[in-house]
User: Fold these one by one.
Assistant:
Number 1:
Amino acid sequence: MLMFLFLVVALAVVVGAVTLAVVGGGETAVLPDAAPERLQDPLPPDRPVDRGDVESLRFPVAARGYRMSDVDDALTRLGAELAERDARIADLESALAGAQAATRTTLDKPVQGSEQ
């Protein structure tokens, strides 16, 4: 019986100490709020993204996976750059096709003053 009484008193002391620590923390809480993890090395804003930037991109882990805003920002940036590169490739292919057509028409024209 004495052991049981000792365990009940010890349990009451532990519960009381934890309650006072959590509730009565005052200005200095026992567990301060953790600063949210942010993306350490975002994609470079001053130059186009290259393969190394994408390979080194690591998102901080949040409560349920990754922070959606960090992932959304990275995907938006990558999508915009891919669209810009696709447009540039289409322009260059169009210019190349025009130059090739002009070269063909120049080569196909008979030279004046020569007879065949």
Number 2:
Amino acid sequence: MSDRRRVLKVVAGAASAAAAGVAVVPVVGLVAAPAHTPSPLAARGGAGEGGWSVVARIDELAVGEFVQVPVIGSEVDAWTASPDRRLGAVWLKRRGAGTDAVEALSAVCPHLGCLIDKQGDHFNCACHVSSFAADGRALEGPSPRGMDPLEVRVHDGNVMVRWVRFRLGVAERVKEG
């Protein structure tokens, strides 16, 4: 009788292990797959193709005036893809009549990531009282560096910005992601 119980225990244990394996394998596959699959965002570099997002029309920008515009694009993490999300904001300034005469400064404060506002002829971060010159240089406050310049180009009348996130709180301009 004890041999019969021993055989039943082995069979029951094997059946339990097989059932647990059947349940665990799909879960492990679900969790591990995103870690090994390259992110479409990483392949594109950010917002749109090559990280470029259309943010304005060139004819909407007055020469010599800064205007703040949102950067809208796709955001992809390990689990979801979210199209048309606000990735951040930039300050644009048209310097002249040419299509290459547009500059872009990130509206994200290099200190802790608060939104930078324009007041008069300079920029301010209200969170921790950093101020910046009209060219983005840091003037005073805890910001470790000036405002981050971004690549900008004009194509078919569209102003496009290459959206990049930079590491916060450090003096060097280091790209994140």
Number 3:
Amino acid sequence: MRRLLRSVLVAGVLGTAGTVMAACSSPPPQPPAKVGAAVERPLSSSVRSAVLVDQAGRRFTLGSLEGKTVFISPFLTLCADVCPFTTGNLAQVQASVDAAKQAGSTEVIEFTVDPRRDSVARLAAYAKANGVTWTLARSDVAGTAAMIRYFGYTAIPKPLKHSDVIDPLTGQPVTYDVIHSDGYAIVDAKGSLRFINNAAPHFHGLLPAKLRAFLSKEGLDTLRKPDPQGWRPAGALEALSWVAGVEIPLAPLR
């Protein structure tokens, strides 16, 4: 009787464990609407084939990244208001991808919408100055225009008559700004756009010293009072986990 009872108990424990394991292996859920919008739209041929170049001079295309989940966010190196906070948030996104051991199957890209100024050399200097470990990418004017159209970005040059922002490479005042959109897009391993968020970054944390020093008055105001509706690393990782089908928890920066 005792042996039978023990057998029943063991079977019950194993059955419970099996249920728990099954529950743990279920795919991450779709994020709530407040995080962003789920979509399903294959990359256009012009976007798949647009030649991108990273901060090390390596050439690639989004088409060549098929098989990986791609997290892509617009920026420009001479933005002194919002882009430093995009970079700050992406540092935590990349740290979380690394901690979850998903770096081989997930690509994080900061894509410049300012191709006339953001050369490979400028991207490399920005990466070195700010501890960037993910991909910074540029395309030519035509490739950038294709990306802007497809992802629904805004990128409008705005001349500056009087600027207090100094270009760290030239030492000269910045002569124009680019009014641009923010947020991120996530492309799945099959090459389809699956998730979009068009909000500005909501950043709380320590910026690299050079990024903080580059902030304009508006940027310092944003640092003190970030947009409460802005995107945060935790929400971005919810979306990334859902698209990738693998849980990528928020990890602390080291």
Number 4:
Amino acid sequence: MAKVELYTKGYCPYCKRAKALLTSKAIVFTEYSLDTQPELRDKMIERANGGYTVPQIFINDQHIGGCDDMMALEMNNKLDTLLAASN
């Protein structure tokens, strides 16, 4: 099973959408809430090569991007392959 990490904020509809997609696929993920852990913001930006919006999504330490990027992978039938790969 892939290691999936998301940086999120509670009010963010894109974060909720990304989490809903992963949950619908029964994917266990680690969520880093910038609401409760704002000190992680700089680490997120560094890991995301300057990406500062939420969510920022990582699969097996590979930066996927945001919700729209993950949805594009899903639409192109590429997300399940990434999620099936072990770290």
